[in-house]
Amino acid sequence: MSKKWVYMFSEGNADQRNLLGGKGANLAEMTNLGLPVPQGFTVTTEACLDYIDKDNTLSDEMVEQIEESMQKLNEISGKSFGDEENPLLVSVRSGARISMPGMMDTILNLGLNNTTVEALAKKSGNPRFAWDSYRRFIQMFGDVVQEIDKNKFEAVLDDIKEREGYEYDTELTVDDLKEVVDRYKAIVKEETGEEFPVEPKEQLMKAVEAVFKSWNNPRAIAYRNLNEIPHDYGTAVNVQSMVFGNMGDNSGTGVAFTRNPATGENKLYGEYLINAQGEDVVAGIRTPEPIDRLKEEMPEIYDQFAETAQKLEDHYKDMQDMEFTIDDGRLFMLQTRNGKRTAPAALQIAVDMVNDGSITKEEAMTRIEAKALDQLLHPTFDEEALKEGIVIAEGLAASPGAGTGKIYFTADEAKEAAENGEDVILVRKETSPEDIEGMHASNGILTSRGGMTSHAAVVARGMGTCCVAGVEEIVVDEDNKTMTAGDKVYKEGDFISIDGTTGKVYDGSIKTVAPELSGNFGTIMDWADEIRNLKIRTNADSPRDAQQALDFGAEGIGLCRTEHMFFDEERIPAVRRMILSPDKETREKYLEELEPMQKEDFKGMYEIMKEKPITIRLLDPPLHEFLPTEEEDIEALANDMGMTVEEMKANIDSLHEFNPMLGHRGVRLAITYPEIAAMQTRAIMEAAIEVAEETGADIQPEIMIPLVGMTEELEDAKQTVIETAEEVKKEKGSDIEYKVGTMIEIPRAALIADKIAEDADFFSFGTNDLTQMTFGYSRDDAGKFIEEYKEKGFYQVDPFASIDQEGVGQLVETGVKLGHQGNEEIHMGVCGEHGGDPNSIKFFDKVGLDYVSCSPFRVPIARLAAAQAAVENTED
Amino acid sequence: MSKKWVYMFSEGNADQRNLLGGKGANLAEMTNLGLPVPQGFTVTTEACLDYIDKDNTLSDEMVEQIEESMQKLNEISGKSFGDEENPLLVSVRSGARISMPGMMDTILNLGLNNTTVEALAKKSGNPRFAWDSYRRFIQMFGDVVQEIDKNKFEAVLDDIKEREGYEYDTELTVDDLKEVVDRYKAIVKEETGEEFPVEPKEQLMKAVEAVFKSWNNPRAIAYRNLNEIPHDYGTAVNVQSMVFGNMGDNSGTGVAFTRNPATGENKLYGEYLINAQGEDVVAGIRTPEPIDRLKEEMPEIYDQFAETAQKLEDHYKDMQDMEFTIDDGRLFMLQTRNGKRTAPAALQIAVDMVNDGSITKEEAMTRIEAKALDQLLHPTFDEEALKEGIVIAEGLAASPGAGTGKIYFTADEAKEAAENGEDVILVRKETSPEDIEGMHASNGILTSRGGMTSHAAVVARGMGTCCVAGVEEIVVDEDNKTMTAGDKVYKEGDFISIDGTTGKVYDGSIKTVAPELSGNFGTIMDWADEIRNLKIRTNADSPRDAQQALDFGAEGIGLCRTEHMFFDEERIPAVRRMILSPDKETREKYLEELEPMQKEDFKGMYEIMKEKPITIRLLDPPLHEFLPTEEEDIEALANDMGMTVEEMKANIDSLHEFNPMLGHRGVRLAITYPEIAAMQTRAIMEAAIEVAEETGADIQPEIMIPLVGMTEELEDAKQTVIETAEEVKKEKGSDIEYKVGTMIEIPRAALIADKIAEDADFFSFGTNDLTQMTFGYSRDDAGKFIEEYKEKGFYQVDPFASIDQEGVGQLVETGVKLGHQGNEEIHMGVCGEHGGDPNSIKFFDKVGLDYVSCSPFRVPIARLAAAQAAVENTED
């Protein structure tokens, strides 16, 4: 049995996108719908992979099937490929599963040679058209198949036009065009060492091969890497009978959308050109007409097109992006696909289509790209005001949104100014954990150093504050409180505006527009909530973040990190003294100082979240992270603790770790310093009990023990937590209920999750650490090789952005399965950054987690993505 | 249905060791064999666990069953527990699955009180015996059940003896003993606040509970941790009718082995005492007689005992360690168990028993503790000579064996002296990688600092060189070349001797004896080789190690690390220049300098191993490990490379990593610096081809790519290797075959091993890294908490010493299974330190690896362990 490598358009359908590519599948579907499609066939994506696999060779079987299909096409068209009388001409186009640039361009008019061109001339009665088609064909073939520099061909045209004194190509005569053809052929001979192929069959096979090869050209690979498209999809090739939009004033070509892709308005939207081929539209020499004009110029064609457009939209149940050609008064559809649209348009279209009954709410979910919602959640610049904006520098678009305000160069001053009601932009060389409060208080953050994963960028994204990072053109002088952009020196209090979506920095103040979270957005979110199975929680360490997430619809806090609270300026001295305590008694003394502060933190959280669950994680990072690194801070601390600087340094050194990520942290701290875990437990329980009493809310604390890898670790730490919690309950006369759970973030924990589950009320998968340990590299250190990995196309997805289903995902799946085996009542979620990634959310829904937790600004995305997951996973 | 918590001796058998404990199972077995055993019953290990589980409560069911069993024992013995006329007395002993110290001691004579003591006096006609038995019972019960300080009881005896002017306990009269009993009871009252229990049933239940509780006393826990005995085994309790060896000259007690446990000689070996109870033998007041004397004193008893001993040895097919009592002319067997023996005795016994047909070769394998072979592989001190030895200090027994020689304080001088034929002991504060050659040249290594995992200790164990580390009593002055031990100052060239098995340091030179590897050792190794399935390879980086391993029977090299070769004094400058090269061209220039040296290394290895396989691993550690850290070295390198010191430091800093273990190493180097992998491949291929030509050996290089976690990584690095290898083959006109494989040491690699296997000729499981990443902690950093984990009993085994079958082992098993799915031809081994651990070897045999690779001195252990694994895994 030979394999089927080629499908006539009439043999395929829209479901065969993976095999036939998007374009091929849609051409087949339109054929099935009885729409006017120039017929043809598709060589499959599997053929492409086979070709690559066989070291770029078309198998005999494949060649045979292509020839057979061409024979069928001859029969359908009533013409004959290469025929001297009535030659069939075809176009050859690439068409992958997912539309992507970088692939081979279109070749039109394939099948022309010195004989068939004469036949075309005769048959069309238009020799100029025939010879112009011929020279275009050679030019395209030479460029894309034979990789000859385009300019060499253009030079011939220019030469003749100059010689003859023409201004436009259209002035070229038949004889001129014949000369062009001859000179083009000479170029091909010179560049390739071979004659231009005159055999149509040879032309066709070479074009097919060129499409296949283009799958692995550097631009295509780069695009796939950037867009996380797998490299083993391959591309299909579409061979289609030519129709001509340039046969005179009764012909034309155009593109159109069934609805407005910018606003979503339900009205045909597009443009066309009379007497033109597609490439003329692109070339931009003539200005296309809006599609409405066609109604006047060719009312019948317009009606036919409008009807076809509606038919396609009804059929695909989505807004369509179409290409058409009018060949001597006859409409042909060359392509249709779901159209790209802006986020507001996507919402509008989805809501409209549900309201008019075209699609269900479930279908509406899949019509909106979840990630695109992010655009809607942040302030933007007022469009009119922005037109006046003067860009003074550009950096990395590190955290989306627009911000405007007076610049301040320290976090303290930024905070103070904000408290005085000023709009503030914090400008720093780079930020550090001590700047957190100032960052919170600012409308935007600008740093002159650091990349997309710098402290400023990561924290800003978490907060939803706009940030432009690594603006190297700007010189920040923190001592003198100035920033210099070009010639202009900005001082403290001067206004700037920054756009974290584009990376642009503007002079002065620009009006911003607040995001609109009701209307279509609210409708879609409501529908998503009806449909999804996964609960959506948020990662929040402060009341401000908690409130933000609540506003975005979070149903609880999946991860409240307590270490950020330790960095607070007022507390860090006590934290440091606690860490450097010579014995447990001293440590307990400092912990007693910290306990009321931690309690206030938690009370603040409970007051906002009330009965919504908050999972609070006990201290996770290695203690040395809290110690000073600057000479002056070390001196101050030494004085403070009555040590010499040398003693203090030795003390700090003793906490040094070779691999902090694999060191003394997480549950390991709770075991070796149970007094820290006890203090935190006490603070949590007291806070919960007090807020419950004050508000009457039924609060049930969830205490989470991080980094567990062995059942013994969890048992030990849990005992500390339970003993303390029971003590507090007794002291307070409370019968509050609480849960104790653990993170699953160590590979071993996933492997023995059944045993761990016996002692855990809940699991939270920490997929950040789990990814690092499963891959065996840390994010902090991977910088030295990971860019090269990306360039080489090693990643189908960036495993830190979207969960690596093949490896890390296996461990999550194992952990979920075993966890349920070990404890039927267990509740499971994920609190890594993957909790806000739509693809990961689909995976988490499939493996059966109960919730995902993500940063506040990801909550709406997660709500939609969870609904999409519910819809897709039901289909699967 | 109630559970059976108690077994009469007649109900059990030797296979029930897990349920009845070793002692109980053997008492049952002896009962079944019809041997004279004082009857009794065993409360099971499950009862112990239930007791602990119920917060130290004997369940009603259990109490009931114990009482019923006691009733049966009354019937069997014809006596009655607590009876006023004919009282049954019993002993109570602990007996776990594995014999272990730290558990509760024996209680004898339980059942005595003021009434039964009179009956015993009357029945035995020996009131002194009866009252002495009573006071002994109170003393033992008070000590072990009621935890009263022993000395308090001893003080009473001393007081009376002094008052009466006695020298020995035996002079105490009946009245004295009655006084002792009264005063003992008063002590109990005072210490516990309660009367001494007079009810025999109460005595019994309390004794049973005391045994159960003793399972979790700190000493027992510590012993289990040290010996890797699980904490959930529990202990059984044996309650046995008393017999008395102290009833007069027709009574006695003794212990004996069926063969000599020191030499293995096939001759009854032991000692006994007439008119004594077991504790008298231990007390050492009287000197026991050798067992031969019994033949003369009680020929019939001797014959009966000798016959019983033979019967037991035949039955258990192993040398037995027995306890017996002669009660008024009747022999009773109190215990039998497989006897502990020295390593030479174990070999002798195993060989003898195979030769006389008692056991098969397979059984012989299981009679020898694999780890104990280590004793036989190193030089030892001549026993006579050692008697004269003067210990001058003691440190950690860091690497076994004995060494003697002149002391030198630098590696260079040690090396030079050794080359001049001197015996050398290298003395350092601590060693570093630059000392390797000097360490190799020495007979032994002494360091004043560092622990069991210090550089000196780890490297010495790898080399098989004896080492005493961390000898803090000795002051090493490297500048003045002296070491001071107590008052004595040793200078360069003075003789010392060190014993790495005991940690002792001796003054002067002591004669050593070379290990004997033929004889019984050779016989056992030959048998092991016949039986085992696993091949045994070695980890060796130098010809010297390779030769050593070959002598020990290695069948190949499973891991040849190339980085150690880089540290060579002559090369490190070129290595550093290579690493710090500003561009690829410069780097290639330095690599060209290094290539001939690497080739010579590999030639040296191939010349020794010839056709035996060598798996050579491409460079693994992060490059910064090769860079200087000392100020003066940095300066020298800066001068050398024409940089300022600041530039050099910045250069070095730029290679800094936060988590080097999770950083830029392994295959990541081969991908970002393919020129390094290419150089190494070239060196390997050229070496193999040249040695193959020189020797005619059929050499097939195995090139191993470390730290792979993604198929893409392996594919990329493999391409570099194959391109280079093919280039070399072409240049040399060779058609040599070679293999390219990978390490499985990243969790993800194990999870996707099917896909990785498609591109790998072999897998080598790197269980060191795999353990670190699966547990999520590095060995370098775990020090801060791991001791606490061990103390708390978290580990059933140290996962770095014996593979964690539950977690890491799951990944190995997955890797093996998937690997075979992906590639039927694949060859798999392990090259982590677990490759030399008998328990791990059993696991590796079970999951189906082809070989294990271990350090040279572990090779004989691994050969035996692999044979044991084959035997045990067949049984399973």
Biggest interface, chains and residues, is: A-B, 48 and 48 residues
Radius of gyration of chain A: 33 Å
Which strand order does the major sheet of chain A show? 14-24-23-16-17-18-19-15
Strand content of chain A: 15-25%
Number of helices of chain A: 35
Could you give the distance between the termini of chain A? 30 Å
Q: In one word, what is the shape of chain A? A: elongated
Q: Mean of residue pLDDT of chain A?
A: 93
Largest sheet of chain A: 8 strands, mixed
Helix content of chain A: 40-55%
* Broad structural category of chain A: alpha/beta
Number of strands of chain A: 33
Q: List segments of chain A where confidence is low: pLDDT < 50 over at least 5 consecutive residues.
A: none
Q: What oligomeric state is this? A: homodimer
Write up this protein.
In chain A, helix 18 (455-463) links the parallel strand 18 and strand 19 (466-469). Chain A contains 35 helices and 33 strands. The longest helix of chain A is centred in the last third of the chain and has 26 residues, at 584-609. By secondary structure, chain A is α/β, with parallel strands linked by helices. In chain A, the strands form 7 sheets. The first copy, chain A, has an 8-stranded mixed sheet. In chain A, strands 26-27-28-29-30-31-32-33 form an 8-stranded parallel barrel, surrounded by 6 helices. A 5-stranded antiparallel sheet of chain A has the order 1-2-7-5-6. The interface between A and B is large, with 48 and 48 residues.
